[in-house]
Write a structure and sequence with these properties.
- By secondary structure, this protein is mostly helical.
- Helices cover 78% and strands 0% of the residues.
- The chain has 15 helices and no strands.
- Helix 8 packs antiparallel against helix 9, helix 8 runs parallel beside helix 10 and helix 13 packs antiparallel against helix 14.
- It is globular and about 65 Å long.
- The protein starts with a helix and ends in a 7-residue tail after the last helix.
- The relative contact order is 0.05.
């Protein structure tokens, strides 16, 4: 959003608005990824109602999207001080701590969220990603399975589960998870890429190339996809095609020239 329009929105809200109007506008602006405007709206709401934990939590989300992690963490701490049993705030705090690579603290926050709300699928999912980052794959898998039991139609869960299974070298199970992810979300380019990586690990190179091809159709501007495709093409001695894929990767991202 241009700065002038952003200021106009905040100015209008500052002059006259109801809390309901402000919240509706904040949600619209968040959907549009106008996070600075969203943060400004929630600060105005908090100026009127300082103890509004939902507004605080949403401000933290906007700050997180802006990469202002320390500020977001302070906001979530404030939310939790106001409402210690707010599971979503504990979960969001865990996400920030994970981003900051403070994994043990992140895990404590997610565990708190789940303790408060055992059916909180997102809490179990984020717990899985934290444990995955910590290379505690058995525990990560258990968390993903719990999340899937609660929300079986979440493609991102099946995708993340596939990553963990791949790291455990359970390639057939990983492939089944990726297949479920793309069935739920046919335009899931990342899942097709990871599916191809698993097929490559299984030495099923032709199938891997078919999966890369689908991913590239969905995301033709991804240098990583072309680079990965070139590696598989080399495995089956398709040197000319591998060179074309490598050149495509470099054209999109010159850093791949160093690979």
């Amino acid at each position: 959003m241009p700065a002038s329009k952003e200021k106009a929105v905040i100015h209008w809200l500052g002059r006259s608005y109801t809390l309901a109007q402000a919240n509706v506008l904040a949600v619209k602006e968040y959907t549009r990824k106008h996070y600075k405007t969203v943060a400004g709206i929630y600060r105005l709401i908090l100026a009127r109602t300082p103890d509004d934990v939902d507004a605080c939590n949403n401000l933290g989300c906007a700050l997180r999207e802006m990469g202002r992690y320390d500020e977001a963490l302070a906001i979530y701490d404030k939310v939790i001080a106001l409402k210690p049993d707010y599971a979503m705030a504990h979960n969001n705090r865990g996400v920030i701590l994970q981003t900051l690579k403070r994994y043990e603290e992140a895990l404590v926050s997610c565990d708190k969220a789940i303790a408060l709300e055992s059916t909180y699928s997102m809490g179990w999912q984020n717990r899985g990603t934290i444990l995955q980052d910590m290379e505690r794959y058995d525990e990560a898998l258990a968390s993903y399975n719990q999340a899937i039991n609660l929300k079986i139609d979440n493609a991102a869960l099946w995708y993340s589960r596939g990553i963990t299974l791949h790291e455990m070298k359970r390639y057939k199970d990983a492939l089944a998870s990726y297949d479920k992810a793309v069935k739920l979300k046919p335009d899931y380019a990342k899942a097709y890429n990871n599916r191809a990586l698993t097929l490559h690990a299984m030495t099923l190179y032709t199938k891997a190339l078919a999966s890369y091809a689908k991913a590239i159709v969905l995301k033709p501007d991804s240098a990583m996809l072309y680079n990965n495709q070139s590696i598989t093409l080399l495995e089956i001695s398709c040197y000319s095609d591998a060179l074309i894929s490598s050149d495509n990767a470099i054209a999109l991202d010159p850093d791949y020239a160093e690979a």
